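Sequence, please.
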């Protein structure tokens, strides 16, 4: 059952019990039979336990004509929107030829000496789990500053392939990276919804993060990701 269905059921049950209060006032039933507790446990008990709230709700379920007998069909539509694995097209994986090109430009602000930024580029699934770190630029002798890449560090398994994806920092300029559509284990990923992320931070400098949802399937596309501070001209191109 989705969280929406749970919330809907709780609200509907409480509305039913509140209706029982009004019904009791009209019929002279004791108020305790229609009492509404501070929680669902106080109000609703197991059948046969003699819980007053349960008896009242049961007795008035047919009397309260406004109480829905079934949950609304909208719950079926929203049930599939909860966080989880990316939606797939019949479980199909990306074509072997499919690849995603990620372009961006690093343009430092301010005058004088500018330290090269730490930059991470990666792909997450729709639930926020790491799919693949595409590239990570940092100074090995100052790896403590990797913590400044807060979004990348928050993704489980982000440092699992640190040695295979990392490289030295780079100066200002435009860059292009290619993701071959595989996960950290080298397996082709499923068609569906993903998030591409570009994060930059530099010592005594600003922090930037560019993210955008993308849907990978059987059609090629291009998408402008926008800009954030010193990260500009960010875009992706998907080719099948």
């Amino acid at each position: 059952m989705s969280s929406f269905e749970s919330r809907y059921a709780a609200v509907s049950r409480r509305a039913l019990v509140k209706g029982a209060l009004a019904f009791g006032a009209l019929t002279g039933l004791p108020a305790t039979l229609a009492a509404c507790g501070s929680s669902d446990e106080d109000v609703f008990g197991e059948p046969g336990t003699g819980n007053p709230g349960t008896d009242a709700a049961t007795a008035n379920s047919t009397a309260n004509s406004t109480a829905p007998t079934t949950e609304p069909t909208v719950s079926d539509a929203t049930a599939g929107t909860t966080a989880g694995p990316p939606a797939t097209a019949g479980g199909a994986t990306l074509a072997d030829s499919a690849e995603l090109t990620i372009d961006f430009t690093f343009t430092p602000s301010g005058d004088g000496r500018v330290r090269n930024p730490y930059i991470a580029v990666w792909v997450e699934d729709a639930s926020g789990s790491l799919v693949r770190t595409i590239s990570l630029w940092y100074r090995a002798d100052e790896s403590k500053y990797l913590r400044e890449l807060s979004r990348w560090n928050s993704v489980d398994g982000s440092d699992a392939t640190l040695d295979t994806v990392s490289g030295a920092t780079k100066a200002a300029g435009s860059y292009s990276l290619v993701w071959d559509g595989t996960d950290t284990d080298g397996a082709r990923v499923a068609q569906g919804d993903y998030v591409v992320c570009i994060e930059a931070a530099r010592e005594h400098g600003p922090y930037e993060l560019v993210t955008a949802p993308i849907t990978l399937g059987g059609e090629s596309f291009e998408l402008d990701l926008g800009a954030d501070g010193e990260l500009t001209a960010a875009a992706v191109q998907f080719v099948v």
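Helices lie at 3-27, 40-43, 52-60, 74-78, 150-154, 162-165.
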